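We were asked to recover a plausible sequence for a given structure. The inputs and outputs are reproduced exactly as logged, with field labels preserved.

PROBLEM: sequence recovery
POSITIONS: 363
GIVEN STRUCTURE:
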């Protein structure tokens, strides 16, 4: 179904191999459909005992959704949407739910860039997952940088990160390395990239009953993960928890402004460049998501993505970052002070009655 998704079964282990290196494996609708079809076919196949998702490129597992497609499809109508755009998000979020509840061990090799939609195909499967990072891993939910919000279940997994780490990552869109991903609960083990070939050889030859336990044998001591990444989150945990505990972005920024520490000032500078509206929407999304199931979070995110394209914030963000590349988005509103609670609340107002929601069948 997609030239960019390869599948194979070796030694009762099924592999999903993303092969769109020039686009850093950005997900298209065809790719989402191909991954979904493979997982559904293997779910009840006795000849498959585990699934591994990986990339042909060391540069990225997946850099997210195809944002140029978002812009092209979103500018076709005055309402900022098209049937293909609607299908993409409905089917992508359904895939995220399928992965999260997959009944077989699910291993994500998070080598290189793993952002946005890439996190959606790597973070699922709580009971059976193994998320492997390397010294090349660059992990982020950077959506506020393009006028979007952390979707693909971000409202669920970010809101469950320790303390206010998830709030920090979602509202700032910052990128982290291996050690920070493990500290945030977004990855499980660190494997040096030079050990990945041997790990794949093990997969091809092992008869181990517990694939995840076998792969953990390749994990380096945690201090090596620390050497591979910045390790900022653990060092700044108290400061992150203090500043990001507030329930408005304005209060968070005011708290940061009163802290002379370089980390606080750098964080404040970053937030001043993000979409004020979508930072506020993201904060509300994460606060709500903390008490929701994954299915509930995905339904909320499906509503949010419709409202975001209607508003046009994401179209402006992608224009500035990818299309015109002027890096000067004209956010609407232009400041956090101009964002009202009513504006934020409107994004959570579902355009569908419950019985007609595109993701009503998720449990």
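RECOVERED SEQUENCE:
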């Amino acid at each position: 179904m997609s030239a960019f998704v390869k599948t194979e079964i070796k030694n009762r282990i099924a592999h999903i191999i993303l092969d769109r290196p020039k686009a850093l494996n950005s997900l298209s609708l065809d790719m989402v459909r191909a991954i979904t079809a493979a997982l559904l076919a293997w779910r009840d196949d006795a000849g498959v005992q585990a699934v591994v998702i990986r990339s042909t490129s060391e540069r990225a597992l997946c850099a997210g959704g195809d944002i140029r497609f978002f812009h092209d499809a979103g500018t076709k109508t005055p309402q900022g949407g098209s049937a293909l755009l609607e299908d993409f998000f409905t089917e992508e979020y359904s895939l995220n739910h399928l992965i999260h509840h997959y009944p077989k061990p699910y291993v994500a090799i998070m080598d290189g860039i793993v952002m946005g939609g890439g996190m959606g195909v790597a973070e699922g499967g709580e009971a059976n997952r193994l998320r492997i990072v390397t010294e090349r891993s660059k992990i982020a939910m950077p959506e506020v940088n393009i006028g979007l919000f952390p979707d693909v279940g971000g409202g669920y997994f970010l809101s469950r990160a320790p303390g206010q780490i998830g709030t920090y990552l979602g509202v700032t869109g910052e990128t982290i390395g291996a050690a920070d991903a493990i500290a945030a609960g977004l990855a499980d083990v660190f494997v040096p990239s030079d050990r990945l070939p041997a790990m794949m050889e093990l997969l091809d030859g092992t008869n181990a009953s517990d694939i995840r336990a076998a792969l953990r044998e390749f994990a380096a001591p945690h201090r090596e993960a620390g050497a591979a990444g910045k390790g900022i989150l653990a060092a700044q945990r108290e400061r992150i928890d203090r500043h990001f505990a507030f329930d408005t972005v304005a209060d968070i920024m005011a708290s940061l402004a009163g802290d002379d520490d370089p980390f606080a000032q750098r964080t404040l500078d970053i937030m001043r460049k993000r979409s004020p509206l979508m930072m506020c929407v993201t904060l509300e999304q994460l606060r709500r998501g903390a008490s929701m199931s994954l299915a509930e979070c995905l339904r909320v995110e499906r509503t949010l993505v419709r409202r975001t394209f209607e508003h046009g914030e994401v179209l402006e963000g992608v224009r500035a970052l990818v299309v015109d590349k002027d890096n000067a988005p004209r956010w609407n509103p232009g400041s956090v002070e101009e964002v009202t609670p009513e504006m934020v609340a409107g994004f959570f107002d579902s355009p569908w009655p419950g019985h007609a929601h595109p993701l009503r069948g998720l449990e």
